[in-house]
Structure formats: structure tokens, C-alpha cells
Amino acid sequence: MHRKSIVTFMALAGLVLAGLAQAAEPVRIGFSLSKTGMFANATPSQLNVYELWKEQVNAAGGLDVAGERRPIEFVSYDDQSNTGNAVKIYEKLITDDKVDLLLAPWGTPFHFAVAAVLERHKFPMIGNSAASVQLREIKPGYIWFPTSAIPDKIAEEMGKLLSSRGVKTVAVTNLQLPFSLEIKQFLMPVLERAGIKVVVDEAYPPGIKDMTAILIKVKNAKPDAVLSLSYPPDSVLYMMTARELGIDAPFQFVLIGPTIDFFAKMFGPAADGIVTVGHWSPHQKAWPKAKPFFDAYVAKFNTRPDYLDSALAYMSVEILEQAVAKAGLDKEKLRRVIASTTFDTINGPVRFDGVQNATTPTMFLQLQAGEAQIVWPPDQATAEIMRKPAWPAQ
């Protein structure tokens, strides 16, 4: 080979190697989750999804950044179940760590807390495990919510569901945290308009250790339905105490927790008939991506995904991935694409109206034989709703 040819070859090889090196530069994606503290038992289903998605994308050659494939690298922190910590972490991720993209923390209070950081830095983020009328009503801008489990819609559909079941009396217990409180705010007028009498109305603080006194009131009132507006720790406490006391209402709703795999495993047949919030199921044949996600999650973690938070987390990364493929990493281009595009997800098509998912109906699930089935509305159902059976003998 002539010297000139060798030099030319080496120069070309250098350009190729430089191009490969540049293409291999990772996309750094930051987030915080509550790995410790009172919400730690709720966050693994979300973190698992993030890890599964990263593995899938990297195995496929990397994230498509406007036509260029780049591997994903996570920058993550433990917010210790403290919203103040989350604010500092997201500020750090943007200003010090200089991440390219952000994933959401867990829960409504944490989304509330970081929303101002996103707005200040004009940094787009797809939310997931959160919903709030209040957040929907403020200036949209840089945060979006793929969930249809918005408090006012939950209240409206709950009224329809209860009326369809012939419910005349209801007991309401609620945790004093934003999501529960917002649902209750909209639910009470809906119940009144539906002619459903509230025979118990009890609120309790985060970290409650004993619900006996509250649930004795519920048992004595003999309601047709019990609505426990609870988070995972007190959802477990509700189930244990309601079973112990023998609360036999034929309709029992537990807000957050029943869709997490540990719940069905912990309570077994005692969980059958419990209704909960959620709008995803691997059994919905109209969503072709649903079952493959379910199978991949089970294969990797040997447990089922949370039908609420895991589904929402995966929807959020699907949306982000599709937006980045169109817009690259430019924050304003990303914002415009997210705000104007219809995305293909495991929950079907998703399009945003302001910050809210404008396409997915508000739904409810019910545990049946250990499996969460969509039971409301009827046109989305994967199974018919059933009366809650008697608690099995302990």
C-alpha cells in the first residue's frame, strides 16, 4: 500500500473511530426515588421499570436521539421520602450533574415539589405516579401526566360505579395526603348528588399504626360500600383490620396498594373483590404492547408489575423515548413534541391536553383470583365486576 494510501486509510479510520466514540457517548438521565423512608415500599415497581427500560434500550443499540443511537446512563439519588430532598436533588441534577433528561420521582407530593424546578429551568419531564387537579390547573409548560386517574374524574366515575351497584350508604376513610384529599374533595359532592349517604367520614395522618377505632365505626355503621382513600402502608393496615373486624360491605375500595404484586401475595383470597384505581391491564387485547411489557417485567424481576405505577412509569419512558427520537435533546423542541404528539404506549394511544392525558378513560380495577382486572367502565372491562366475597377464615 502506498504511503499516501496508508495516510488516507488511517485518517478515515480515525474519523470512523471518532464517530463511534461520539455515538457511544451516553445519554445521562437523572431522577430521585424514595429508596428509604415511609414510601420506600411503593417505589421499587417504578425503579424496576426504569431499569428494565434502560436494559431494553441499550440492548437494542441505545436511545434514538434524533437518528443517533446512544447508550443510557442513570444518575439517581434517594430522596428519603422527603419532598424537600427531592427539590434539592432535581436542582442538582439539572445544574451540577447536567443530565440530558429527567425521569419522575414517586408520588403526587414529589411531583408537586419538583414542578417549580422544572419550570424555572425550562426542563421537560414526563410525570407518572402522580395525579392532581390542582397541578393540571396551573400553567402547563414542562410537566405532563399520562394517568387518567385524576381526582375529579375518579370521583365522577366512582359515583357512576356505586350507583350501578345499587349502593345507598358509604363509609369514607382517608389519608391526609394530597391525592387522597383531592379525591375526597370531589367525591363528597358526587355522592350527595347521587343520593348516596355518607355514614362515616374519618381522616387520619400519615404513619398511622392502628385503625381499629376508625374501622369499628365503619363496622357499626353497616355501609353498603367502604372507600379507603389510602396509600400502600395504610392500605395494608386497612385490609388487616377490616378482615379482623369482619367488615362485610359488598363493595370495598382501596385506593393505592392493591395493584402492587405484594398485596395479592400478602392477602391471597382475602384480597378478592377489592376495587382499586388503575387504567391498565395486560389482558386488554386492544393494547398490543401491554402483554409483552408484562412478560418482560416478570421475566426480569420474577414478580408482576404494579398495574398502576409500573404501567405509568413505562408509559412515561415510552413517551420520552418517542419524543427524543423526534426532537433530540433540545429542551424546547422536546417540550413542543411532547405537547403536540400522539404516542403509542402499553396503555394505547396517549395525547396530552395541557398536562393531562386526553385519550385514556378513567377506570377501576378489581382483584379477582389474585389478578387485577379492569371492571369499569364496562366498554373497557377485561372482566365483569363481582360482589366482594366474605373474608376467608384466618
Topology:
Layout: H1 3-23, E1 27-33, H2 44-59, E2 63-65, E3 68-70, E4 72-78, H3 83-95, E5 101-102, H4 108-121, E6 125-126, H5 133-137, E7 143-144, H6 151-164, E8 169-175, H7 178-193, E9 197-204, H8 212-221, E10 225-229, H9 232-245, E11 251-254, H10 261-267, E12 274-277, H11 290-301, H12 309-327, H13 331-340, E13 343-345, E14 348-350, E15 352-353, E16 356-357, E17 364-368, E18 371-376
Describe the structure.
With 394 residues, the protein is an alpha/beta fold. The protein has two domains: 25-148 and 286-357, Response regulator (Rossmann fold), CATH 3.40.50.2300; 151-277 and 363-380, Rossmann fold (3-Layer(aba) Sandwich), CATH 3.40.50.2300. The protein is built from 13 helices and 18 strands. The chain has helices at 3-23, 44-59, 83-95, 108-121, 133-137, 151-164, 178-193, 212-221, 232-245, 261-267, 290-301, 309-327, 331-340, and strands at 27-33, 63-65, 68-70, 72-78, 101-102, 125-126, 143-144, 169-175, 197-204, 225-229, 251-254, 274-277, 343-345, 348-350, 352-353, 356-357, 364-368, 371-376. The protein has a seven-stranded mixed sheet, sandwiched between helices. It has a three-stranded parallel sheet with strand order 4-1-5, with helices on both faces. Helix 3 (83-95) runs parallel beside helix 4 and helix 6 (151-164) packs across helix 7. Residues 5-22 have low confidence and may be disordered.
